[in-house]
Design goal:
The protein has about 110 residues and is an alpha+beta fold. About 40% of the residues lie in helices and about 20% in strands. Strands 1-2-4-3 form a four-stranded mixed β-sheet, with helices on both faces.
């Protein structure tokens, strides 16, 4: 099973989900019975001008979520979208995982 959120589900998560703000990222969560513990990531060009920095932020968020699912720390009936903030630059995967754990506990 893939942990990536399919494209058509982004709109429903943004429309019907709720946002949770953290220091490194903002998360949108949609609880539903058909949710499959998947996540999408968004990184804006306005925040990260260089493609290298945008891609690193996306890789960090995807890997942190994948590890949380593997350990079993991610809620089962929820779809997520993570939006990177500028402070995520220069962070490592452990710090992003810690932030995601905090967000998921809210």
């Amino acid at each position: 099973m893939s942990t990536r959120l399919p494209g058509p589900k982004y709109k429903s998560v943004f429309d019907r989900g709720r946002s949770i703000k953290g220091r490194l990222l903002v998360a949108w969560r949609l609880d539903s019975t058909d949710a499959d513990r998947q996540a999408g990531v968004v990184v804006s060009k306005k925040t990260f001008h260089n493609a290298v920095d945008r891609n690193r932020a996306k890789r960090l968020m995807r890997e942190a979520f994948r590890l949380l699912v593997a350990v079993g720390d991610a809620p089962i009936d929820a779809d997520w979208i993570f939006v990177a903030r500028g402070r995520i630059a220069g962070r490592n995967c452990a710090e992003v995982m810690k932030e995601m754990r905090w967000i998921m506990s809210q």
